[in-house]
Every structure is written in structure tokens, then in C-alpha cells.
What we know:
- Helix content is about 50%, strand content about 20%.
- The chain is α+β, with helices and mostly antiparallel strands and about 800 residues long.
- Among the domains are: about 170 residues, no CATH class; about 180 residues, no CATH class.
- The protein has a six-stranded mixed β-barrel with strand order 3-4-9-6-8-7. A six-stranded mixed barrel has the order 14-15-20-17-19-18. It has a four-stranded antiparallel β-sheet with strand order 13-21-12-22.
- A hairpin with a 4-residue loop joins strand 1 and strand 2.
- Helix 14 runs antiparallel to helix 20.
- The two termini are about 45 Å apart.
- It is found in: Cell membrane.
- Its main location: membrane.
- InterPro entries: ABC3_permease_C, ADOP, MacB_PCD, Macrolide_Exporter_MacB.
- It is a multi-pass membrane protein.
- Keywords: Cell membrane, Membrane, Transmembrane, Transmembrane helix.
Amino acid sequence: MQSILGNIRYGLRQLRNAPTFTVVAVLTLALGVGANTAIFSVVQAVLLHPAGISQPERVVSLHARYTQLNLPSIGVSVPDFEDAQSLTGLVDSAAISQPGSFNMTTSSGTEHLQSTAVSRDWFRVFGAQPILGRTFSPEEDQKGANYVAILSYAAWQRIFGGQPDAIGKSMMMDGQTYRVVGVMRSDFDWPRGRDVWVPVGLAPEDYAPSNRFSEGYDSAVRLKPGVSVAQFNAALAQKRMEEVRREGSHGFAETGGWSMFAQPWTKDAAGDLRKPLLALFIVVAAILLIACANVAGLLLARTATRMRELAIRTALGASMFQITSQFLIETLLLAAGAAIIAVLTGPLIGRLLLLAIPDHLADGFVVQSNPRLVAATIGFSLLAALLAGIIPAIQVARIQRIGEFGRSVTDSASRQRLRTILVSTEIALAFILLTGTGMFLMSLRQLQHVDPGFRPENVLAGSVTLTATDYRDNSVKQAAFVRDVLSRIQHQPGVASAAASSFVPFSGLCCWSSSFMIQEKPLQVGEAGPHADNQTASPGYLATMQIPLMRGRWFTEADRADTPPVAVIDDVFARAYFPGQNPIGSHLRWAMGPKPVFREIVGVVGHVRRDSLEVDENKGVVYMPFEQQPTPMATFVVRTKGNPQVFQSSLINTVRSVDSTVAIFNVEPLSSLVSQSLGARQLLVWLLSLFGGLALLLAAIGIYGLLSYTTSQRSAEIGIRMAMGAQRWQIARLIVKDMLAMVGAGLGVGIVVVVLMQKLLAHTFAGVGGGILPSLIIAAAGLLAAASLAVALPARKSASVDPAVVLRAE
């Protein structure tokens, strides 16, 4: 112990005596460690330990899938949830939920509230406790008795001013009185963006086997300690097969490729942020490698200046272990300084990064300083110390073994070669990051020009929910409300056209999907039924969205509830189920509703992307007239003759004038919604550019440091060359030649790595992989420019050497 303490004290004296080296080395390591700490803080907040969830590694989400229907992951049904809940040997608690919304009526008007109906154990699954009141009781989670509510922290502050007496107060939502029984903590927001939770109140008939394939719910399960997701999935698969065979529904399950599975809840929670954050974690690891290579080069250079000291220590009996351990301890001291800076600044930078993430992606996530983050920072620092110190320590051990200490203060060819390799490695890593940034930037520009299938410019969208008592289960009144709003909007100045639909693309809301049958194409035995998305729309929808009509007709005012039911399909649907045929006149039927009827296909329209410019699920869509299939949710779209944002207040006032108890929400230009769909990709490009620039800076510092050192080591050689008649430009050319050799080696390795990872990037991120040649050229040009700046001072210094002075000094 005394020996270690002595080495630490000696190391501190050595670092204090070389302040410039110490500051540069600590700051360089701090950049690498701090970047990793910052990104890890966000990864922890999003992927590992989301705020408000106790032991998130034990929480999983349930999903169903139909491999034969191109449905890899959807919600679950109540019987599915019951199957999972029954596995008491593996499950600690399970809950089911269904998203929804309310129109809350107050003395000052109507406000829209995002809600989720949950079973009583929802909060237990997540280990969440209210700050006021309580959670739902079993008696309240019953149909007809579920008029109680738990508020989110933000809703409590907004509606009741954060007053403790909110518990027990009433809220008028959708014409029904709800009593507040609890307020959740500010860090619990699952599902994200909720204002209020109410009991789902499942009825006994909801558990009937006939509802096995009615997947309209989400479900979360807390596993017992020690139970893995794989174990739970195996038990779930066995339970699933037993139940579907008992129910006699295995025929459809097999033909549709139906199954259930669970996955970590954090995977669902992270959503579109998962891949960008993992990619950035790899990027900052490369930044750490570059920083370590820089410090390793500095340590190697410093070794040459300490030859006399090392020779004396060896002569006094210091062993190889003592000498190398001294170097490693000094490197650990440098890393400790970097760790202190990273602990203080990493979480702050992480919070700034989280603020840079679009709200619709980052809502509900909180970066926190905690022991896990400190432990991770210490781990990054120890790794940095090992990476930066191991090569210099090995080199020192080798020098002592062959007895080179004290022979010369000049650098050996092997040490010079080693430092050159380190700098070339930095250049290669920086080049890879810069090329990757260029490829992502080009892919983003390409995605921004992807045709979504409609024209979002100058279109304003806003949604309403018709779930109040007067509208619920009253399709006639739902249709009348929509009709009245549209008639008032269309006659307002500045409006080119207006329409309504059950949802609009890129709104975050979604259509419903279901299986159907084609009257003219009866299914064969064992054949999986076709499946498609369904959407209702008013007559003006096609013109307002500017979706191309490819065949037949769109809906008209004549398509009413009392006229023959009709449908319009998109071209993806037509190609899938009517290849090489004219679908007009064919008939479709859904097995839903009390009286399923056949609808005649009267038109074919262009395909519209639902929610992503990156990936098109390419699933067919069936449109139905809103008058014939009203829904409790409607989204109004208004094409204006100018800036659509100017029309926001007019749309809000129009809805209010038709029914003041209905609140319109998510009133935004459709172009903004489309742009938001690229939020994760834009974030990734922005951060890649930031870290790519940091890598370029570190590489330039490495080039400058190495060339400055080699220039000073070669001063005698340069003096002799100049004494023999070498011109200044010839001397400068020697230094530039060394720079070009390093850059060339780094670029060569970088190009090979980029070509090898191109396919992996293209597979992981849609659109990335093309445009590799321009990215390579731009990255190479950027590195050459940075290297040129880095070599300028050493080249000028070497060309300014006075041979007489140098030779006298020698």
C-alpha cells in the first residue's frame, strides 16, 4: 500500500512539473470520457432505466403477430392478456390498457385530455406510487363502476393548480362525472403524454374466446425476480397453443401465422430513438479511442524526455514492474482528472442532448445523475487509462529490457513508428465518422424528397373525439357533427377545400386493421384471409390531400348511410389482391358489426405512406365513406390558399361554434407532421456532425502534436540539410510528406472499413448506403484541410531553423 501511495505522490509531482502536458492530456481524455458519459446518460434514461419505473429490466410488453398477414407486432386481445396473467409462477403482476381521450368541460370552456384506460395493476407493474391519494381498487375496475380518475402530475398542476385538496374533487369528462382518487409522480408518464388514467372496467364477456383475435389493447407484465424474457416467452407459447386448441380457433391461428410474444418494455418505450442512440454510442466509443490514441502519443513523446530519469531509477534497482506500474498510475491519475470533469459535465450535456431531441420522441424521459452513471463514468475512465497507457507502458518495459535507458534522448525509429501508427489510427477513425456523417446527411436529404403520396403543403389538420354521451354509439349524430363543421369551414375566406377522415397520415393516430373477404374470390381451405388497413373519409378528402385517382371514382355526397355501401382501395391493395385485373365492381366484406355487408369497389387511388418516409409498410388501404361508416374520432384537413397556420384559430372556433363541448386538438400544419417523422434521423445527423467535428479536431491535434515533436527531434538533421544547401521549401516539404503519409495510411484503412460497413448501415437505417463516393470525397477533403492546418506551424518552424545555431547546440 505504501508503495502504491508513494507512486501516486511521485506521479502527482511529475504531472505538476509538466503542466502543459497534464492539462492537454486531461482535457483530451475528458472529451472522450465526457462524450461517452453524456450519451450514456441519455441511453440510460431512454433504453435502460426510464424514469418512474422500478426495476425496468423485469417489465415486458405483450404483442401478437400474424406472420402470414404481414403484421409483425400489434396489440393483444383480452383473452391474450388473461393467458399471460394466468402464468402465476412467472408473473408478478400484469395489466392491460387502451389509449383514449376525453373532452373535459369546465367553467372556462372545453379542454382535450389524453387518457389511458388501465386495469387496476397497471401502476403496480411499473412500481409507480402516487404522490397524492391512491391507485384503483378492484371494485373500481369494473364496468359501470369505473368513473374514477388518476391525474398526471402536469394535469394536476394545470387543472387544480397543484392543490392537495384535488383528491375527491370531480371532473366532467365526456359528459360523465369522474372523481379524482390519485395524482402520480412527475417522473411517471407511461404511456407517454397521458393526462389522466381511468379504470378499463372489462366486462366478463370481454374474456370470451370469440374475442381472441380482437387485438385492441396494450399489455405490460412484471416478471418475477430471476425470470427471463425467454422463459416467459416459452411458457407463453405453450399456454397459447393449449388455449387456442381448447377454443377451437387453431385453424385461423395457423393459417394466419398467429402467435404471442413478449419483449422488454424499454424496447417499446424507446421507439424511434433506439437505433439512433445505439449508433451514437458506437460513435462516442470511436471518439474515446481517438482521444486515447492522442494521449498515448503524448505519453510516448514524454517517455523520450524522461530517459535520464528512468535510467537513474533502473540503476537504483527499480524493476520492470515498478517502472511500468509508475507509468500506468500516472495515466490513471490523468484519467481520474478526466472522470471528475466528465461526472460534473456529462449529465449536463446529456440533458442538453435530450432537449435537442424532438418533443414527440423525448417526452417522458429524464436524464438523472445517479450511482449507475457515476459507475459508468469511472468505467469509461479506467478503460481510457488502459487504452492510453498500455502501449507506452509496454514500450517502456521493452526499452528497459534491452537496456536503452540513458543512451540517447533522441527518439528511436520503433517509437516514432508507433506514434505514427497511433495518429494514422486517429485519422482512420475520424475519416470513418466523417464519411458516415456524410452518408446519413445525404440519406436525410433523399428522405426529405420522398413522395408520401399526398401534398402536405398548405394543409392544416386538427382532430376531435366524439365520445361524449350524446355521440357515443350514435353514428347519425357523429356524421352530422362532421358534416356541419365541414360546411362552415368550406365557406370561409382563404379555404381552398376541406374534408374529414378517421385519421390522417403522419398524425400519430392510426387507422384500424382487419381481415376481410372478397366475394368473387372465396378462400381455399387452409388459406389465410387477406388483411388491410381501413379508413373512412369524406367526399372532399381526395382533393384536399391531392391523392391521385387512378381508376373509377371517389366518394360523392350521394354516398350516404341509406345508399348501397361502397369502398375505394389504393393501388397497393389492387396489386396484391387483383393482380392484372380490374377491381372495379368487386365486393369486399368485413366480419365486424352486427350485420356485415358487402361493399362494392368503385375506385382505385394512389398509395399513401402512413407514418414514415423511411420505411413504407406497403400495406393496402380500404377507404369507406364517412357517412356510411362514422367513427368516434375525426380529423379535419383544410387546404388553404396561404399559410395554414393563420387558419388555426378559425378551425378551433368553427368546431367550438358547432358544439362547445367538443375540443379540437393537435392542430398543426400537415407539412410539420411529415417533417416530424424524420425527427430521429435529423437528430442523428446533427449529433453525428457534432461528434464528427470533434473527431476531426482530435485528429488534427494528433497530427500537430506528432509533427511538432518529430520536427524538434529532427532539428539536427534539418540543420545539416540546410547547411548543405537545402532550401526552406524543401525542408517544409519533408514535414508535409510525413503528414501525407500518415493521412494516406489513415484514409486507406478508413475506406476499406467504410466499404465493409456500407451494407450493414443500409440494412439498419433506411436510405443509408447510397452516395458513398461523394461522402468519401468530402470526408477526405475535410481531413486533408484539417491536416494542412495542423502541419502549417511545424512546417514553418522547421523551415525557419538556423543551421548555425542548431549545429553549435549539437
